[in-house]
Amino acid sequence: MASPLTSKTVRETRDLLDRREVSAVEVAAAHLDRIESLDEKTVRSLITHTRELAEAQARLADQRLASGEKTPLLGVPMILKDVLTTRGVRTTAGSKILENFIPIEDGTITRRLADAGTVLLGKANMDEFAMGSSTENSAFFPTRNPWDLERVPGGSSGGSAASVSAEFAPFSLGTDTGGSIRQPAALTGVVGFKPTYGRVSRYGLIAFASSLDQIGPFSRTVEDTAMVMNAIAGYDRCDSTSLQADVPDYTAALRREPNLKGIRLALPREYFSVEGMEPGVEASVKDAISHLESLGAELGEVSLPHTQYGLATYYLIAPAEASANLARYDGIKYSTSLREPGDSLWDVYERSRGKGFGREVKRRIILGTYALSSGYYDAYYVKAQKVRTLIKQDFDAVFEKYDAVVGPTSPTTAFPLGAKTQDPLAMYLNDLFTIPTSLAGLPGISVPGGMVEGLPVGLQIIGKALDEATILRIAHAFEQTTRWHTLRSPVAVQEP
Amino acid sequence: VIPLRNVMRDDVSRPSWPVDEVLLNAPAVKDGYFLVPPVLE
Predict the structure, then answer these.
(1) A393-441 tens-digit pLDDT
(2) Looking at the partner chain, which of B7, B17, B37 has a beta carbon nearest the beta carbon of A348?
(3) Is this complex's ipTM strictly greater than 0.90?
(4) Which among B21, B24, B36 has CB closest to A332?
(5) Is B25 exposed, middle or buried (0-12, 13-18, 19+ CB in 10 A)?
(6) What is the least distance, in Å, from the CA of A298 to any CA of chain B?
(7) Disulfide engineering: A178 pairs with which of A71, A435, B2, B26, CB 3.0-4.6 Å?
(8) Does the predicted model carry a pTM greater than 0.95?
(9) Do A104 and B17 touch (CB under 8 A)?
């Protein structure tokens, strides 16, 4: 039997559509049927299904295809993390407080993908307001890992990662604030890409920590990620932090010959042999890096000396920004409102926020409010901003001599559901190797780089600001000469 | 001192959202406004 439409990559789907072997309506229907028969009883990656919208968008795509249009993502189905606003489609951010929120407009990226002709299949589950590393903080239900349903898919973009790993869509979008794209990509065995801060517009992304948040794709190949980046990268006047920088054709960075001669790769010693790191993960990542060397790359050991302060810095800056961003959910303008007769305005705030937010969100609002409070501001927030600069300078120094930094994405493979929910600090350690990149605003990618006891391991490649092309090239060369990305999760091989 | 500069745009007004759409997700509305409990007794 030929492989089903749902196993195709973005590129393969496009080729089939161009050759008129299938219609966009058929491609969409195959994915929608698969989701409807499998998602609920396996990974639970979606909060909202958008069949009607998908069918309408697919019909429109077929009309455009019939007129000879060849826009690269035309007719390709996809899934959006439920933190990206979609006009007329409920957008919850994984929170009770936005349980019934129906945005009146598309975010810039939702709009760009719709204009490119993609077909929205549904909205993906996530940790509430993107705060978490396991998707267990979703106010609705946890998502499970397609490789082992008793384990987490990582987070906070766990639904987006799991949906691509389970072959519910060839690509999805997530958001990364401290690792929320790269870590779930690693744990579910797919490609996850965080662009340079400012490369992709955040307009219409429900804000968590505005100086860190960045939208990026999940896919099953590096080429597909490059294709999606071509559609979403670029300046947007609606986002004041959007960069006015030229956007290259990312697919042009991918060479046919997997040759890395002349590429210098830095291995930070702080990313290896650290406490809490699984030996199997470390061994796999070292093998993957040796493989990069065999493709011609030069390796060198370096130090990123402020790595050990990354988590502490992040857990001051991100909650501080979150405490300000989440002040808007007041039960007055558009969020869940719990009012009783005789309530004062303050009662409405208290009840709506008290019942609307989950534990982790409250923990971070309290932490952030404290860090910003009079008398503590200098000792915590200002100090954290200074350390953030030191962390960025660590990378600047390394990039004077190297083209990219390589290491593990996550210290462990996917862990069992519930294993870390009672210990926030253990949960935060998941992002040890992804947070410094976020604080420095740099691009990073996680690609399937090994397997340990049936669970995927991610290889992380970090690049210079705005030099996404180099890390895509390295990731692509690695992928072309390894088999890890071809392994399919047990849910992926399940027939509907 | 720091390698940053302000990013400015021209001060030109653009159309904003119709009031009925802005109020679409409001929990309580009256005469085209958000309805809130009394702030001053």
Answers:
(1) 999 999 999 999 999 999 999 999 999 999 988 889 889 999 999 999 9
(2) B37
(3) no
(4) B36
(5) middle
(6) 32
(7) A435
(8) yes
(9) yes
